[in-house]
Amino acid sequence: MGQPIRTTCAYCGVGCGISATPTGPRSVQIKGDEAHPANAGRLCSKGTHLGETVSLQGRLLHPMIGQRRASWDKALDLVAKRFRETIDRHGPDSVAFYVSGQLLTEDYYVANKLMKGFIGSANIDTNSRLCMSSAVAGHTRAFGEDVVPASYGDLAEADLIVLVGSNTAWCHPIVYQRIQAARAARGTKLVVIDPRRTETCEGADLHLPVKPGTDVALMNGLLAWVDQAGVTDPAFLAGHVNAPEGFWEHIRTGHDLWTVAKTCDIAPALLQQFFELFAATPRTVTLFSQGINQSIRGTDQVNAIINVHLATGRIGKPGAAPFSITGQPNAMGGREVGGLASTLAAHMDFAPENVERVGRFWAAPAMAAKPGLKAVDLFRAMGEGRIKALWVMATNPAVSLPDAGRVRDAMEACPFVVVSDVIADTDSAAYAHVRLPAAAWGEKDGTVTNSDRTVSRQRALLPLPGETRPDWWIIKEVARRMGWRNAFAYDRPAEIWREHARLTAYQNDGARVLNLRSHATIGNDAYEAMEPFRWGGAAFADGLFPTADGKARLVPVRQMEVQAPLKDWPMTLNTGRYRDQWHTMTRTGLSPKLARHREEPLVEIHPRDARALELEEGDLARVSTPQGDSLFRVMFNEGQRPGEIFTPIHWTDQTSTGGRTGLLPRPLTDPHSGQPGFKSTPARVERQAVEWKGFLILRGTDPVRLPCLWATRVTVPSGALYEVAGNGDPSRLEACLPKGDRVEAIDVTRGTRRVAIISDGQLAGVLFVTRSGILPSRDWLIDQLQAPAVGASVLAARGPGNQPDKGATICVCFDIGLNQIVAAIREQQLVDVPAIGKALGAGTNCGSCRPALASILAQSKQETLHAAE
Predict the structure, then answer these.
(1) Is 866 a residue whose pLDDT tops 70?
(2) Rounded to 5 degrees, what are φ and ψ at 334?
(3) Quick one: which of 182, 448, 517, 520 is 20 to 30 A from 435 by CA?
């Protein structure tokens, strides 16, 4: 066993520190880094199980030209040649990079420098455009610079925490744990503003289920209330904030309690309760995430929140700030170096003096002088033939962008597509002419910046496998082959970091908060040993903002009319994440533990809507929008507002025949940020009839394509589970079974067939299908993949004696199921979540399941009361 290596988690923008100990050639022991300021040793379920994702399963290990393996020299020469030819023939704006918050800051920096300083175009955008660009635009409009004016430490000092459009318990679990710690320590109040009643709402003091798209009305109404109540801060406003003419007149007109309640579709009494609580609590932190950003009015929604904090002076003070919590591990680092098409570099825009300054610093021959194409526009331009060469780095736009069917058509039509990635086969890689094998988490070396501006090192734990290379190396090698050898003569990431730090400080006379001057001369050893640090310190604590006059700006924003349900598309589709999955599952999909929480892509629907549509829980349903359609498994959820549905973003062609959420949203974007609106797409839901259902369990990791309507792959120990359903003859699935000794059982009455394949005494595969019967639990059969010997009795799908079904997995860390939790509550008379943890262990590691445990406990108590009556 090696020595522990301090690194940073690969997932969300919380930026948790990890202590990772290599235990073998491709195995790592994961613990939280107790010294890291972001998490103090805590990890969520995804971070806890990172060790299950470092195998070489599915990895791209060699350069590929078409379907043939190539040398690095041939692949890089071809990329450089085709990009150079395209630029020479069609100009620099005919090429584009689409990059990712999975890149390290050093990778991002080299890509941005190549595109904007040497190719001469700003057509480099990032998948961070999809999750936080509205926050960037809102910060810049209000503060003059993209600066998050909060830290995680503020949560411990707040008396009120408001979560807007954020299922924090699932998407940022460590932040949620900090919130719960503050509530326990100082009685901090918690308000959740979200159309859905999510796990984050469990135990909250107040939940406001606002109508989607009405956040501007809500926040303008709050501002009108605090203004009328005399809670604004006149001294702070006079000395530190500019209000445009007519701002207050606008706020004081049409934003009364009753009007706002009607617009937001919530009870006036509930709204008044929130307004009064906010007005009475100076130490307030408002955290917002995708529910705010992912809107065609996202920037205005961000500024509506910031306006309230500026007007009440709740900014730059302990426990008082608006706080954007980002989605990806290095979305902030990408913002800092200029990874967005709308920024230049180092928090500078495309003002002529900035273009001249950066060009001089880089000694750049062809500086981009204007913003480039943002993500949705970039792929639209590709479909129109204006982008003729594309390089995709560490992301999967064929899945994640809105109207993904059109994105696929654009990639297929593009004359030259390069994909540099960790995984060999992704939905986007299918359109690549060249695939370049990139280093994965655990092999990368560089820095990332988290949501509160803390920079941390991500360090290599494992050697580079095969012919993989770091992203910065791949980019600089292409740049050198395009003729810019001296400008890209990097040998290690520390050199790139120093250059980035120098650029942030270059001729920065205090105009920008981002200034890494102290790191501009950092040595290689010091870089290697770098401790986490937070640039900018307590931003705006002095009341000074990076604007021409040093003042922040109140930004007038108006509530736009929310579209009424359409005749052909009567539902409203909302999209988002699941607790234990990440983006398009290329990493989390490798973990058997993480796969069991939500095994299939579900459409969550209110039972009232389901009854009207004649849907039963567990049915298959087709969700359609004007852009496309896909199948989902039906789940009833009373936390959904009637008329609204929710689907997850994670499933791809590699993992399911359905669940393709990216096909559904409209390609409409915010006019300021260019961020797509994923939260309110007109849709309809229809039951999908099937004649049979079943499951297939196979030993090994090689994926199979199943010839049926519904097939979703779930990673399990030693193999894979496929949930299947369809029409016609299900026997064609038997072709997917491996070779070996065959045993089978048939029940003609129920149309049930059970087939098992045994090879060398071990279970190689099983197929269970039925037309009208009940399918058994999969758990015991999955366990048999690891059994040393099995026999024909495996068809019984249960072992000897009593084998109770543990139920749906609730606690991933300790593999605790719903039925086990309910039984323990009843038999041991457990009365709270800590008692469940003591009895079963559930909720005592990462804590992600604690809201679910609280909900189960409450339901169990209610059922006990009903039984007593």
Answers:
(1) no
(2) -65, -35
(3) 448
Kind and range of the H or E run holding 119: none
Rounded Cα distance between 339 and 332, Å, is: 10
What residue type is 452 in one-letter code? Answer: D
- The pTM (predicted TM-score) of the whole model is 0.95
* Contact yes or no for 672/299 (Cβ under 8 A): yes
**Residues with Cβ within 8 Å of residue 155, at least 6 apart in sequence:** 161, 175, 178, 179, 182, 285, 319
Q: Which residues contact 271 (CB under 8 A, 6 or more apart)?
A: 208, 218, 221, 257, 260, 261, 264
- Alpha-carbon separation of residue 210 from 75, 132, 268, 481, 635 (angstroms): 52, 21, 12, 54, 22
In Å, how far from its chain's centre is CA 545? 30
Phi then psi for residue 691, to 5 deg, are -95, -25
- By the 8 A CB rule, do 288 and 415 touch? no
Q: What is the mean pLDDT of the chain?
A: 95
* pLDDT number for residue 750: 82
Residue 492 scores a pLDDT above 60: yes
**Residue found by looking up tokens 């409209």 in the block:** 666
Name the maximum alpha-carbon separation found in the chain.
Answer: 83
From residue 18, how far is each of 175, 329, 422, 869 by CA, in Å? 16, 13, 21, 51
For 583-636, write each residue's pLDDT tens digit.
Answer: 999 999 999 999 988 999 999 999 999 999 999 999 999 999 999 999 999 999
Which phi and psi (to 5°) does residue 675 adopt? -80, 135
Q: Are 491 and 485 in contact (CB under 8 A)?
A: no
> Please, what's the b/e burial string for 608-618 (b: 16 or more CB within 10 A of its CB; e: otherwise)?
ebbeebebeee
Give me the percent of the chain exceeding a pLDDT of 70. 99
Task: List CB contacts of 314: < 8 A, sequence separation 6 or more.
Answer: 282, 283, 284, 308, 320, 321
3-state secondary structure (DSSP) of residue 703? coil
Residue 802 has pLDDT above 60, yes or no: no
Residue type, 752: T
CA distance 591 to 580: 10
Q: Supply 588's token pair.
A: 């989390």
Q: Which tens digit of pLDDT belongs to each residue from 22-54? A: 999 999 999 999 999 999 999 999 999 999 999
Q: Report the half-sphere exposure of 867 (CA within 13 A, side-chain side).
A: 7
404 closest CA partner among 84, 652, 198 = 652
Q: Give the CB-side neighbour count of residue 795, counting CA atoms within 13 A.
A: 16
H or E stretch including 132? none
DSSP string, 746-766: EETTTTEEEEEEEETTEEEEE
User: How is residue 810 written in tokens?
Assistant: 């609730």
CA distance linking residue 708 with residue 601, whole number of Å: 16
* Cα gap 223→149, rounded to integer Å: 19
Least confident stretch, 494-498, 821-825, 857-861: 857-861
Q: According to the 3-state scheme, what is the secondary structure of 297-334?
A: CHHHHHHHHHHHHHHCCCCCECCEEEEECCCCCCHHHH
DSSP state of 320: B
Q: d(Cα 208, Cα 194) in Å, to the nearest integer?
A: 6
Q: Tokens at residue 176, please? A: 């949620």
CA distance 476 to 389: 18
853 band by pLDDT with thresholds 50, 70 and 90: confident
Query: What distances in angstroms separate CA 629 from CA 404, 616, 642, 664, one per listed residue?
Result: 11, 20, 21, 6
Give residue 865's pLDDT band: very low, low, confident or very high (50, 70, 90): low
Q: How many residues does the chain have?
A: 869
| Cα distance between the two ends of the chain | 59
Ramachandran sector of residue 330 (left: φ over 0; alpha: ψ -120 to 50; beta: rest) = alpha
CA-derived radius of gyration, the chain:
27
In degrees and rounded to multiples of 5, residue 72 shows phi and psi of -60, -45
Taking 90 as the threshold, does the pLDDT of residue 397 lie above it? yes
